[in-house]
Amino acid sequence: MVERRKALKTMMKTRRQFLQKSALATAACFSGLPRLGAAEIDASPLNEHRIDSIEIRRVKFRWPRLVGKNGRIGVHGQHHQTNVAILRTEQGAEGWGLTGWEAGRDVELGMGKTVGELFDPAKGIRDGVPKDFDFALHDLAGIILDIPVHEMLGGKGTKATPVYSGMIYFDELEPEDHPAGLDKVIENCAWDVDYGYRQLKVKIGRSGRWYPHDEGLKTDIEIVRRIHETFKDRGVEILVDANDMYSLEDAIAFLEGIGDVPLFWFEEPFQEERERSRKLRDWMHANGFEKTYLADGEFRPDPKFCLELAKEGILDVNLHDTFGHGFTRWRSLMPKLVELDTLASPHAWGDRLKTHYTAQIAAGLGNCCTVEGVTCESDDIDYGDYPIKDGRIHVPEAPGFGMKLIG
Ligand SMILES: [Mg+2]
Fold it and tell me: How far away, in angstroms, is 241 Cα from ligand 1 center?
């Protein structure tokens, strides 16, 4: 009993020391004292922090409106939940981040280890460390070292990257018993533009599943033309995403149909495939869409194959998912893409945590042409200071990812 009380006292003391040190460091940060550059990060404090608690928590969030169908799947809804992992150290540091549905099985693998045994700030999670702790460990290490994640990543990008709304779906089809019509899609675009977005990603691929083929293709062309006409004076750029529901012929017919409407990128016309993808890229080069990026590698990607497509000049923007591919793996992938002169925009659809993680990748690793914005509200999460202004998302200078759990 005495031993336990003694151990508890020591723990409380180290906790207090860490908290005092953090307060001083934060004060220094705001007083304008010079901060360390990425190459000079002293990782040794990570060895002084041992994980003594891992909690997996379910959090709720909601999109600002009902999100309907895309080319491939049905209504996406509005209210959702996800899991986060919260890692705490004996010294009182706490970091958290998005995790998998089965993260609970990995808890034992992290308990009792020092943060330094699990994580290297120059690379990310160490070999063998569960991917489920990738985001939480980046947050925790940033908090212990008192640096924002984008600084840990080297600060190679911009702190205000273009951001697009990824929430323009086939909303004309809802509610099913009384479909709203295409005006609803325009209304949703207006909401997003008022919110601060200057890029809209418009779901297309209506020819695949929800409409008769020709009518679907015609509606895709009509809505993209209408959005362009309605918002061009507000400087809005359009991206399109067919969720792999087009054939090569559909993709070309769509581009012919929109004619001189400028497109920022064409995402997932069909599952990436060397010959078809090359033919489309060549057709775009020869027919006035040479400036439109071909973006792919989101749905069930083969990362090695995507690198080959990048090398061959077929794939312009790699879209591997921020969470699915993983933060640490994105850190090692980005330099390869830079070498191949291929851009990135890690797929962030789902929730705003992924948008903010992706903004940190963009600011830290650079080479991101835009960030996928997922507008969300949550009573469980304080999403931190990531304002969207004039089409750009800004990253905070707070340590870690700069977001907090409520309660
Ligand atoms: Mg997509």
Answer: 6
